[in-house]
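Lab meeting, item 3. Inverse folding demo.
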C-alpha cells in the first residue's frame, strides 16, 4: 500500500541535456519524507478492557486525493482515520469501565463512521469489532457462547501473551466480532497486535474483491477457449486465398481477450499484493495452538488462499489466452505473407519471361532493321548512280557491287556501337 510518506515524496527532475544537482533544501525535503515513512500509521495504544471498532470504506469514485492520517482523542474514546491507496479506514477505541458480561452495543452506525472518514455514501469493505478483555478464562467455550460466538477459531498469539478468538460470522449490522484476551501485552504491544488483526481482516476483504471478477470471467474464458480451438482448426483447413474472414474473427477474439485483461489487470494485481500482506500479518501473530480449537491463521488461510489462487489462475489464464491468440494471429499473418511472396515471385517470373521474349523480339527487329537500313541506303546509292548516268556521268557498275558489302558492314558496325554505348550507360 502507498502511505503518506511515499505519496508525498519529492523527486527533482533531471534535464537530459544538462544534469542538475539537487539543492540542500530539496535533499532535506526528500530525507524528511523518507524518514516520516518509517513512522507512518502508528497504532492506537491503550490498556484495559475496551471495544475497538474498525471500518474500511472505498470511495464511490475510486479516487483518494489525500493521504494524511488524523487522530482524535476525547476522554476514553480515540478515533484514527487513515487513507490508503484504494480505501479509507476508521479505527475507534472506546474504553470500558469493566469487562462486560455480553457484547457491548455499538453507539455509532456505518453512516457515522463514513462521516468520520469524510466520505458520502461510500462502499463498505469490512466492519470488524474487537473486544479486548483480561486473562483468558479456563472455560473458554462457555465465555464464547455467552458472547454469541458460533464455531470459533482460537489461537494463542504474541508468544503466548494474548489469545484471539473469532467465528468470522457477519452479523445483521454487517460487522464481524473478535475477542482478544490480553494476558501479558503492554499498551504498545496491545495496540500493535490489534492493528495486525484489523489489517488481516481489511486486506483479506480487499483481496477478495478480485473474486467476483474471476467468477464473472470464468464462463467468458471458457467461450474464448472454445473459439480459439475452432479458429485454430479453421486455420489448418482454410485456403490461403480465403484468409480475410478468418483474420477478422481472430482479431475480434484477440480484442475481447485484451479488453478483459485490461479491465481486470489492476484488480488481480491488487489481490496478489493484498494476499501477500495478509500472509505477512498472520506470520507476525506468532500463533500457537489452543487445545480444542482451530488456529485463527489456519482458518483464514484455508478459506482465503483458494479464492486468491482462483484470481491468480484467472489472470494466468487470460495471459495464456492472449499469447495463444496472438500466436495464432502471427501464424495466419505468416501464412498470408508467404502466399503474397509466392504471388510476387510468380509475377516477377512472368515479368522476366516477358522481358526475355521482348529481348528476342528486339534482336529479331534489330536484324530486320539492319536489312531495311541497308536496303534504303543502297536504294539511295542506286538513285544517285542512275541520275548521274542520265546526266552524262558514267560510272563503272562494279562500284555498285562494291558498295553493297560496304554499306551493309557500315550499318551493322554502327548499330552494334550504338547498342554497346547504351549498355555501358545502363
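The presenter then showed the designed sequence:
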Amino acid at each position: 500500500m502507498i502511505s503518506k510518506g511515499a505519496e508525498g515524496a519529492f523527486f527533482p527532475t533531471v534535464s537530459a541535456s544538462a544534469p542538475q544537482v539537487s539543492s540542500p533544501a530539496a535533499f532535506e525535503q526528500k530525507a524528511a519524507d523518507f524518514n516520516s515513512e518509517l513512522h507512518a500509521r502508528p497504532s492506537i495504544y491503550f490498556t484495559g478492557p475496551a471495544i475497538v471498532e474498525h471500518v474500511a470504506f472505498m470511495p464511490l469514485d475510486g479516487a483518494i486525493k489525500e493521504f494524511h492520517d488524523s487522530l482524535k482523542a476525547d476522554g476514553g474514546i480515540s478515533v484514527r482515520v487513515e487513507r490508503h491507496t484504494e480505501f479509507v479506514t476508521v479505527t475507534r477505541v472506546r474504553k470500558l469501565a469493566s469487562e462486560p458480561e455480553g457484547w457491548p452495543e455499538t453507539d455509532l452506525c456505518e453512516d457515522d463512521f463514513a462521516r468520520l472518514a469524510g466520505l458520502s455514501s461510500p462502499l463498505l469493505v469490512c466492519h470488524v469489532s474487537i473486544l479486548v478483555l483480561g486473562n483468558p478464562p479456563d472455560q473458554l467455550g462457555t465465555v464464547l457462547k455467552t458472547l454469541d460466538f458460533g464455531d470459533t477459531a482460537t489461537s494463542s498469539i504474541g508468544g503466548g501473551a494474548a489469545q484471539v478468538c473469532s467465528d468470522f460470522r457477519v452479523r445483521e449490522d454487517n460487522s464481524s466480532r473478535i475477542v482478544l484476551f490480553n494476558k501479558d501485552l503492554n499498551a504498545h504491544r496491545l495496540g500493535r497486535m490489534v492493528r495486525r488483526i484489523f489489517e488481516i481482516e481489511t486486506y483479506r476483504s480487499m483481496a477478495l474483491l478480485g473474486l467476483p471478477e474471476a467468477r464473472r470471467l470464468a464462463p467468458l474464458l471458457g467461450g474464448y477457449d472454445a473459439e480459439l480451438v475452432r479458429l485454430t482448426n479453421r486455420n489448418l483447413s482454410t485456403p490461403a486465398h480465403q484468409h480475410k474472414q478468418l483474420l477478422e474473427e481472430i482479431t475480434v477474439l484477440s480484442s475481447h481477450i485484451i479488453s478483459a485483461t485490461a479491465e481486470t489487470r489492476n484488480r488481480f494485481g491488487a489481490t496478489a499484493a493484498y494476499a501477500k500482506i495478509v500472509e505477512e500479518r498472520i506470520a507476525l501473530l506468532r500463533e500457537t495452538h489452543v487445545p480444542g480449537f482451530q488456529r485463527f491463521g489456519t482458518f483464514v488461510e484455508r478459506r482465503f488462499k483458494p479464492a486468491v489462487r482462483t484470481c491468480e489462475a484467472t489472470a494466468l489464464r487470460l495471459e495464456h489466452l492472449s499469447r495463444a491468440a496472438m500466436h495464432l494471429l502471427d501464424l495466419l499473418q505468416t501464412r498470408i505473407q508467404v502466399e503474397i511472396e509466392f504471388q510476387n515471385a510468380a509475377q516477377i517470373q512472368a515479368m522476366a519471361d516477358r522481358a526475355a521474349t521482348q529481348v528476342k523480339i528486339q534482336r529479331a527487329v534489330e536484324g530486320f532493321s539492319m536489312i531495311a537500313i541497308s536496303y534504303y541506303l543502297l536504294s539511295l546509292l542506286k538513285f544517285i548512280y542512275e541520275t548521274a548516268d542520265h546526266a552524262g556521268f558514267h560510272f563503272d557498275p562494279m562500284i555498285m557491287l562494291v558498295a553493297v558489302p560496304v554499306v551493309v558492314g557500315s550499318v551493322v558496325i554502327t548499330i552494334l556501337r550504338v547498342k554497346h554505348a547504351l549498355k555501358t550507360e545502363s
